[in-house]
Each structure stands twice: as C-alpha cells, then as structure tokens.
Amino acid sequence: MQLLMCLHTEVLNTVTYCSGIVLPTSLSTLLQKMSKQTDSAAEVLLEKKGAAGIITLNRPKALNALNLSMIQQIYPQIKMWEQDPETFLIIIKGTGGKAFCAGGDIRAITEAGKVGDKLLQDFFRGEYRLNNAIGTCKKPYVALIDGITMGGGVGVSVHGHFRVATEKTVFAMPETAIGLFPDVGGGYFLPRLSGKLGYYLALTGCRLKGRDVLRVGIATHFVESEKLPALEKDLIALKSPSKEKIADLLNSYHMKCTIDQEKEFALQEHMEKINSLFSANSMEEIVKKLKQDGSPFAMKQLETINKMSPTSLKLTLRQLREGASMSLQEVLRMEYRLSQACMKGHDFYEGVRAVLIDKDQSPKWKPAALEEVSDEFVDDCFKPLGNDDLKL
C-alpha cells in the first residue's frame, strides 16, 4: 500500500535516468512514439511551449512527491534551458488538482537507511543541487504552487523568481514531527521572513493557507486557481519575455483576484507573541517563555512542540540562527551535513514509523527531552564532512 505524507512523502519507483546515448534513427523514432503514448504515466513531464520550458510534476496519486528519478530529470533540463537562447522562462506546476508537491521521497529514504544504501547520499545531494539550480537560475522561474506545497515542494518553488499561490495553496515545513529539520534551503528563506515567523513555522510545522502564503512573502503573487491555465497560456504566448514583462503579466492577474482579500492574516493577532516567544537563543528558553506566557496561544504551541523530536528542534533552531547570515549555497552545504547526521540517528526512522507506517502518532524519541540533547552532539551534526561535503 502506498503511504502518503504531506511532509516529505512517498514511495519510490526508481526509473533509471540515462543521458548522452545516441540511438539509431528508427529506434529513436519508435521510442519517441512510445514516450508520447506513455507520457501520462511519466513521473515528470518536460516540454517546450513557445518561449517557455514547462516542468509538470506528474504523480497525482502520490501528491506529486519528488523521488530521485524526477530530480535527476529536472536538474539537467533546467541547466539546458538556462543555456538555450530560445527559452525565456521556466514554469513548474503539478497535476491532479490537490497538490503542487507534497514533499520528497521519505519512504524510500527510510528503506535505504535501514540497509545502508547510497540513496541516503544521492537523494539529498541531488535535491539540494536542484534547489541551488533554481535559486541561481538566470532565466525567470515561475512556480504555480496550487494545492499542497510542503517540504521538497517548497524547495522546488520558493527559491525561484516568482511563486504564484492560489486559494487552494497549503504551505508547511513540518519536518520536526518526523525527526528531520526544514531542509531544501529552509535555513535560508525561513529566518528571512518577517520577525520570528520563520522560526515559528519551522519549529511548530504550522500550516499557512491561501492568501496567507502571499502575506508572509513565501508567494510573490496570488491568483484564482481556475485562472492558472489562462495565466500559463498567456505566459507561453509572451514574445521574448523579459523578467519585467513576466512580472507585469503576473501583476495584472494578481490585481484582478479578489478572493479572500478582506480576510485578515490568520496569525496577525499572534505576531507580537511569536516575535517575542520565538526570539530566545535556545529551545529550553523558548519552552520556558511559552510556559511563563501561559496564554491559550502559548499553551497550544507548547503542546505542539512537546510532540516534536527534541533533537530535531535543537538542530532546527541552530540551522535557522546560522542560516540567517549565510548564502543559499552555504545553507545547502550545512543542511546536507545535517541530513546525513539525521540518517545516522534514531529519531528520523522512529518518526516515519509513528507518523507514516504504524500511524500510532506516538513516536518514542531518543533522547526524549530537550535537556538530554547535548551541545556537543548538536555541534557534531554541523561538522564538515571533508570529501563527502555537498559540492555545488
């Protein structure tokens, strides 16, 4: 049975990705015909329409979760389009109507970790290189984040120039609940959100919906979900589009959208508390502040935090504090070190068991308390890996 998870999710059906093979013309034609017939089954569709390169995440049953094979196809294609004088912009979207991309390939990573498979290195290395390719892409990159956008889905959208949210968008980075940390460049974009909002989102896994994703700066534009096909068509139709022309078109759609315009930002009344309570230098201090505050909001956050992996919480707080003054590349190198530390630990496998496999929602974290996660252990997780460090 497929196990889905609106964090980093999914079951891996690895397809070997080959490049640079020259096929005889007859065989090549045959394969092209076959690929057209099986396109609907392809996990990711890569096509050129007009001036645009279009990436379609095509695993609707798995909420378009990213696996290694998809990453290995998207990365070289972005690099190719970046160099192509006939490609002026890149669009990424998901199929199925429920999710843009609900995360990454957690189930396969868990299985690989149990047997010491090199997927543990390959997946994170490939995913973070893809995040960097998007963050440094010279061509305008437009992510249509319609529906669930979590974990790995955030990584393939948030670092691009334009992120278009809709009333269906649900954003979250809920990794601390499964013994992980908000990776895919979370250490870069989260501490750069207003006040301490990014710290709050990272530590609690709080979900943001619809227009709120725009209000906090994760999305750049907000457009009605049913208008996205028209927007895509208009983007494709632009002649030699510059970044300014693309921005103008997105702005025109954005200005016409009135859905939830009158609704107040869901966290507005709590922002003062968030900025105060999550400004502490340690997790123990944050917990102490929440207890001292005693308000219903503070108590709710305390209850949430108490369910999370203590190790993940400590790693995450330091990740964001350090990431606040780092470049995206430095953050991704740091996160790769953390990913490998988590893969060697206990909590990730226990978190996946409790949330995904047995679904008892009762993980037995080791260590079980924040005070038991030593500074020395945390320091070790951030240490360089020498030749094994992420190369970008």
UniProtKB/TrEMBL annotation:
It catalyses: 3-hydroxy-2-methylpropanoyl-CoA + H2O = 3-hydroxy-2-methylpropanoate + CoA + H(+). It is found in: Mitochondrion. Gene3D superfamilies: 2-enoyl-CoA Hydratase, Chain A, domain 1. Coiled coil: none annotated. Keywords: Branched-chain amino acid catabolism, Hydrolase, Mitochondrion. InterPro entries: ClpP/crotonase-like_dom_sf, ECH_dom, HIBYL-CoA-H. Transmembrane segments: none annotated. Its EC number is 3.1.2.4. Pfam families: ECH_2 (PF16113). One of its GO terms (cellular component) is mitochondrion. Its main location: mitochondrion. Residues 53-382 form the Enoyl-CoA hydratase/isomerase domain. GO terms for molecular function: 3-hydroxyisobutyryl-CoA hydrolase activity. Pathway: Amino-acid degradation; L-valine degradation. GO terms for biological process: L-valine catabolic process. Belongs to the enoyl-CoA hydratase/isomerase family. Hydrolyzes 3-hydroxyisobutyryl-CoA (HIBYL-CoA), a saline catabolite. Has high activity toward isobutyryl-CoA. Could be an isobutyryl-CoA dehydrogenase that functions in valine catabolism. Also hydrolyzes 3-hydroxypropanoyl-CoA. PANTHER family: 3-HYDROXYISOBUTYRYL-COA HYDROLASE, MITOCHONDRIAL, 3-HYDROXYISOBUTYRYL-COA HYDROLASE-RELATED. This is 3-hydroxyisobutyryl-CoA hydrolase. It comes from Taeniopygia guttata (Zebra finch).
